[in-house]
Amino acid sequence: MKVSGSKAAGTSGATRKKASGTSGGGGFADAMRSLDSGGEASGAGSVHGASGVSALDALLALQQSGDALDSPKKAGVLRAKSVLEQLEAVRDGLLSGALSGARLQQLVGLLDQQRENIDDPELSAVLDEIDLRARVELAKLEVSGLI
Q1: Which of the four pLDDT bands, split at 50, 70 and 90, describes residue 102?
Q2: Which of 15-19, 60-64, 91-95, 115-119 has the highest mean pLDDT?
Q3: What is the CB-side half-sphere exposure of residue 42 using CA atoms within 13 A?
Q4: Is the same domain home to 95 and 48?
């Protein structure tokens, strides 16, 4: 393939025509001058006011709707956090060799609370295993005379 000569980009094809005078260009400039002189653009204030009111209404509606977790689900989340905190304390006690019977009794009591409200069979099985293990550790402490 042979390249012959070079042409400037854009020389072939359509050429651009110069804009003629003020066709449609003066409207924006006139609007800007009227704003600078203290006038207010027509329609702009009404649109701004309506959007401000609708934004305020939306915020008030969100505040009135409440938290998405205001339900038994929120109570379940809080209960799960407290169970996890108790389990971490039991783990730390087991690792350090200073597990107290009171900590295990708190865990067993916490696991016994509202057990009937759990519908998930897998979660119920996990909680049963945790409860059993905590009771076994309590029995060990009782046998050794540490409680």
Answers
A1: confident
A2: 91-95
A3: 1
A4: no
Question: What's the CA gap between 34 and 27, in Å, rounded?
Answer: 11
Q: Does the pLDDT at position 34 exceed 50?
A: yes
Closest-CA residue to 137 (of 90, 92, 95)? 90
Show the 3-state SS of 65-97: HCCCCCCHHHHHHHHHHHHHHHHHHHHHHHHHC
Give the Cα separation of 117 and 112 in Å (integer): 11
| Residue 92, in any domain of the structure | yes
Contact by Cβ (8 Å): 101, 118: no
pLDDT at 27: 77
Residue 4 placed within a domain: no
Question: What is the value of pTM for the model shown?
Answer: 0.47
Same domain, 82 and 118: yes
Alpha-carbon 33 to chain mean position: 46
Tokens of 72: 């038994």
Residue 119: give the domain boundaries: 72-143
